[in-house]
Amino acid sequence: LTSEEFRQKGKEIIDFIADYYDNLNQVQPLSQVKPNFLYDLLPKEAPEEPESFDQVMADFNSKIMPGITHWQSGNFYGYYPANSTYPGILGEMLSAMATGVGFSWINMPSLTELETITLDWVGKLLGLEQGFLSFKPDGTAGEGGGVIQGTASEAIIVAMLAARNKKVQEYIEEHPNHTEEDLVLFKSKLVAYGSDQTHSSGEKASIVIECNFRGVKTDGSKRLTKESLSKAIEEDKAKGLIPFFVVATFGTTATAAIDDFPGIAEVAEKEELWYHVDGAYAAAALVCPEFRPLIDGYQTADSFNFNPHKWLLTNFDVSALYVKKSSYITSALTIHRDYYRNKATSSGLVRDYKDWQIPLGRRFRALKLWMVLRTFGARGLRNHIRRTVGYAKWLESQLKADGRFKVVCPVDFSLLIVQINKQTIADKLGATDIDSEHVHSVFVKANAALHARILEQNTVFITTCDLDGVTSIHIAIGAPLSDEDTM
Ligand code: PLP
């Protein structure tokens, strides 16, 4: 494309995108294509000769679009939201303009500095502890700070690596005469803790860093508690294992449960664990002060992570990771090579984010976040959270009034977990014993069938979670296009 053609096609694509969003709530949210649909539609080789952009767009429309699942539809309530907004999209475009691999300050200073600044802005909007911010109130650099990771999964790997490195360094200092075998044995005994509700990324991180992971059994409210964590740690220590890391979740994936933060904080301090907070979805709500008491006890955490790309109006991928002591991360991840050497790095005055993450290269992701923060303002972000939580509360009251359904978990945020009311099933069966095996088995089948029917109708897209063997309807509200009409 020449720059003239780019101007023209770019404008057409902007129109295409705006039309798409304008009409999105009228489209069925779930793609109906069958596996391998695209393999049959596309040529088996890349074209030898250049093709016209119009031809490519025609194929995009006729062949690719049918396989798009409309996450941005106001009728999409699956998983957790993955917000897209026009400022986010425009930020992505400008980031593409400035494409580079901004791993060091020197090779794209604005990429690094805007990231540091916007993450401090976001941290302040969330009311985070000062220790998580890069700049102290007097403008000097602190020991902590934020970094944008691609996903919460990468964030927890980075946190776990930092935690392991810290523990290993302590071991080395305490055992100056250790052998290589001692060190291998020590590492093999390390245990990271989460709960049986912790997102799979916790366990995956432990696979990556080759430590043990223990998903501690949660209580009746699906929370990791102080008591169960302490008991698990005692058992493991008795076996000679070495606890080093705990993840506490603010808003679990299945039910948006909130772990026992004050209790976990106590255990983390006593057992000298790295304390990581996973608030991937729910921590966006902290932009509204009324949600902050729910996370009390997080203050002593070593690292804190949430995804503005979920529920904070910023296009994927922006996962904000904050740490109190960034040197734990950089000492775990910095590798010196001649080709990285430059004056700015040597001056010690700049941050090279390559040392805060696993890959080397990094995109200019702060740009879209900055554009979202500027154009929505804190007020716009709060409105989005309060509006969508309001829909969740409204839906909860409608379901309660209807009587045929039960909202089975607290609606602290914008997630509802719904089951058919068991009493409705018992009444239908004419059964007097609601706890009978027969009633239960019909109840389990009916809930699964309800979800299958919702999927088949495809007017809304909703996923499920397994709650003690019952397929439960998981309604995650939060798409910017959800409104009074879609609710
Ligand atoms: N943590 C929680 C609580 C989540 O709900 C999710 C995903 O929904 C994740 C972590 C993983 O998020 P990511 O896709 O950013 O790795």
Set down the secondary structure blueprint.
Blueprint: H1 3-23, H2 37-41, H3 53-64, H4 86-97, H5 109-126, E1 145-149, H6 152-174, H7 180-188, E2 190-195, H8 200-209, E3 212-216, H9 226-238, E4 242-249, H10 261-271, E5 274-278, E6 303-306, H11 308-311, E7 319-323, H12 326-333, H13 343-347, H14 366-402, E8 405-407, E9 415-420, H15 422-429, H16 437-457, E10 463-467, E11 470-476
Parallel strand pairs: 2-3, 2-4, 4-5, 5-6
Antiparallel strand pairs: 1-7, 6-7, 8-9, 9-11, 10-11
Helix pairs in contact: 4-14, 5-14, 6-8, 6-12, 9-10, 15-16
Mean pLDDT: 97
The named CATH superfamily of the domain at 105-362: Type I PLP-dependent aspartate aminotransferase-like (Major domain)
What general form does the structure show? globular
Strand order of the largest sheet: 1-7-6-5-4-2-3
Span of the ends, CA to CA: 43 Å
H/E element sequence:
HHHHHEHHEHEHEHEEHEHHHEEHHEE
CATH class designation of the domain at 105-362 = Alpha Beta
**Strand percentage, roughly?**
5-15%
CATH architecture of the domain at 105-362: 3-Layer(aba) Sandwich
| Count of helical regions | 16
Structural class: alpha/beta
Major sheet description: 7 strands, mixed
- What is the CATH T-level topology of the domain at 105-362? Aspartate Aminotransferase, domain 2
Q: How many strand units? A: 11
Radius of gyration: 25 Å
